[in-house]
Amino acid sequence: MSFVLAMSAIAREAGALLMRHFDQHLKIEYKGEADLVTAADRASEKLIRERIRQSWPSHDVLGEEQGLSDSGSEYRWYVDPLDGTTNFAHGFPVFCVSMAIERRLPDSAQRIAAVIYDPTRNELFSAEQGKGARLNDEPIHVSKTTTLKESMLGTGFPSHKRHKNPNIFFYHQLTLRSHGIRRAGSAALDLCSVAAGRFDGFWEFNLNPWDTAAGVLIIEEAGGRVTRFDGSPFELNSKETLASNGIIHDELLREFADIFAGRGLEALPDPREYRR
Ligand code: IPD
Ligand code: CA
Ligand code: CA
To answer: Ligand 3 mean position to 5 CA, how many Å?
Structure first.
């Protein structure tokens, strides 16, 4: 069985578990200020780890809730057992399971397979290195939008250290230069939206490897591009994720360079003026 088929079965099982929890009243715990974790995050990761152990006992796993189990294996899984926890905890139905497998050789590491499952819509996004990306078995491709001003973009804001995050400035500038920005609350699904052509671009500061490992492969296999904010190659520990259909990427990079440099910024309107 291919990795993607086996991963899809695990993701669907974890997604069904999340839906059972979603329909119940939840006990929310706090990892930090506004950083929620639910019983569902933990139960989903436990299930995924058990399934990986049953079929591939030697593989290593980096999961958001339990951290890294590292035995020096050639294969490492990146698991976000519930991406969109804040949505989930508030009953807002935008969340998913995200999993990727990386093959680590002495001189390189390559992500070879990825699956992201949205159990609220029964949408399973997947990709295998060199074999394209799919949504529920149908091939998907990034959009063909050619300019930023005709684009719809996605972004996200972290749930911790929000006071240190400059993203609101980027949100403001890019809102005024595009058809608009969506902030749906699940970075993995945002990346899938770029892959499926629903968004033309996406960016976020400070994402973790379990947020991006699967979605980045799915975008690349769907014909898109992912870099850091200065155009240098994306890496799982980059903490900078800029994804697009590839066509508008250079325009986005120029916008990012201008915003970082403070060039051509639109001033924030004064709410007191607006009121009059
Ligand atoms: C979060 C979501 C959110 C993003 C945050 C992530 P979590 O993941 O992906 O969209 O803006 O940065 O931490 O905590 O729900 O797994
Ligand atoms: Ca996440
Ligand atoms: Ca999570």
So the answer is: 23
Q: Tell me which residue of 243, 218, 215 sits closest to 228, measured CA to CA.
A: 243
Lowest average pLDDT, out of 40-49, 133-142, 250-259, 267-276, goes to: 267-276
Report the distance separating Cα 201 and Cα 191, nearest Å: 9
Q: Which two tokens stand for residue 96?
A: 């998913």
Q: Check if 84 has its Cβ closer than 6 Å to any atom of ligand 1.
A: yes
**pLDDT at position 106, please?**
87
Q: Do domains 4-140 and 148-261 have the same CATH topology?
A: no
User: Is domain 4-140 annotated with CATH 3.40.50.800?
Assistant: no
| Measured CA distances, 132 to 46, 75, 88, 198, 237 (Å) | 30, 21, 30, 17, 24
Closest CA to 260 of 223, 231, 222, 219: 231
Which pLDDT score is estimated for 27?
57
Q: Where are the domains of the chain?
A: 4-140, 148-261
Taking a C-beta distance cutoff of 8 angstroms, is the pair 225, 244 a contact? yes
- Predicted pLDDT at 88: 93
The hierarchical CATH code for the domain 148-261 is: 3.40.190.80
Q: Which of 18, 186, 216 to mutate to test the pocket of ligand 1 (most atoms within 8 A of CB)?
A: 186
Residue 87 CB: number of other CB atoms within 10 A?
21
Q: pTM of this prediction?
A: 0.95
Give, as residue ranges, everything with CB less than 5 Å from ion ligand 3. Answer: 64, 80, 82
Q: Which residues, other chains included, contact 164 with Cβ-Cβ below 8 Å and sequence gap of 6+?
A: none
